[in-house]
Amino acid sequence: MITWRLPLVVLTCLSMAVTGCMQSSSGQGTDGIFSHSAASKMAVTGAKTKLKFWSTGRHDANYIKEVIHRYNQENPDNIEVEMTVMADDFAQSLDLSFASEQSPDIFTPIDLAEMTRKGYVEPLNEYITPVIRSRFGKQAFIEGYNVFDQWIYSLPNSGSTLRLIYNVELFARAGINSPPKSLDELVEAARRITEIGKADGIYGFALPYKIPASALGRSAVPIAEISGISGDGYDFSTGVYDFSGLKPIIGAFRAMMENGSTLPGAESLDIDPLRAQFADGKIGMYLSYSSEPGIYKFQFPAKIKWEAALPPSIDGTYKGVINQGVGATRWLSIKQSIAA
């Protein structure tokens, strides 16, 4: 019998990995967290209880595998977690796994609202004690995001912020001394890099426009926020939506498309193919999350020297801060009614 308290223990350990959930082989890291004693309610005898964990986190896969290996070695409940890192068709693979009754026990939810409607995920309220709430903080329980009608369906697993990622070598070749701090400087830097590199298939700028939410969430939103504008297009002072502040940002992106500074085919480009091109020295700069160091060390070993800087603001002055926010956080859920 596999009760869904077991995946919840693992989910919480993965979510708290950086805070030292597994303090020792005696399992003390989970004491006092759950409302049911691991010793009395979750002891497993005989063969190991195997739990399947599907993740979209390719950038930190090596680290998470190390955490899971330690958990498998040290947990007292005879649990073994098997991790699979999925590709870009994660949502479709997840649907197929549930349809064929071969779904993972723990997974990264893509559209949590839709998954709750489909009955994929289990509410966690009964097992989240005040200790868990205090560890994660109020910002981890957001109605309409991972909480629906007061039911908690997911816990955060990691957080990230956003940066301008740029090729130092191409900047030097183009005579650019520092990363752009304004949109005008961004457009000019992209033009100059393209000018010296186009013959070799090098372009100044790129974004993964295949998925607009991915492209703009990692670019327009942080540029707006660092400029003192709501990246969500919502004016909290007036209580109305106002997207006019994003106009100069979209205008700059359009200018780089029109002047040929954007990598051709970017409109059908996903983030990993973009990263592969950047690692190969074909892109001058792009905007993305602070997970990129792991990407260029393990997933796409960089052949170039690259660095990261704050995103440019609209006019070159910083009037706000980039909100780490829920959009830059990976979450974990467990499937509904696990039983075997």
Question: Could you walk me through the main structural features you see in this protein, from its secondary elements to its overall organization?
Answer:
The chain is of the alpha/beta class. The protein has 13 helices and 13 strands. It has helices at residues 5-15, 38-41, 61-74, 90-99, 112-118, 130-136, 168-173, 183-197, 212-217, 220-226, 247-258, 271-279, 292-299, and strands spanning 49-55, 79-85, 106-107, 147-148, 151-152, 155-159, 162-167, 203-205, 234-235, 240-241, 283-289, 306-309, 329-334. A 5-stranded mixed beta sheet has the order 2-1-3-13-6. Strands 8-11-7-12 form a 4-stranded mixed beta sheet. The chain has a two-stranded antiparallel ribbon with strand order 4-5. β1 (49-55), α3 and β2 form a beta-alpha-beta unit. α8 packs parallel to α11. The radius of gyration is 22 Å and the shape is globular.
Going by helix content, strand content and strand pairing, the class is: alpha/beta
Compute the gyration radius: what is it? 22 Å
Count of distinct strands = 13
What's the helix-strand series?
Answer: HHEHEHEHHEEEEHHEHHEEHHEHEE
Q: Tell me, what's the shape?
A: globular
* CATH superfamily placement of the largest domain: Periplasmic binding protein-like II
Under the CATH scheme, the architecture of the largest domain is: 3-Layer(aba) Sandwich
Q: pLDDT under 50 segments (min length 5)?
A: 1-5, 16-44
Task: Give the total of domains.
Answer: 2
Instruction: Supply the number of helical segments.
Output: 13
Ends distance: 5 Å
Helix content: 25-40%
**Major sheet description:** 5 strands, mixed
Q: Which fold name fills CATH's third level, the topology of the largest domain?
A: D-Maltodextrin-Binding Protein, domain 2
| Strand coverage percent | 15-25%
Question: What's the mean pLDDT score?
Answer: 82
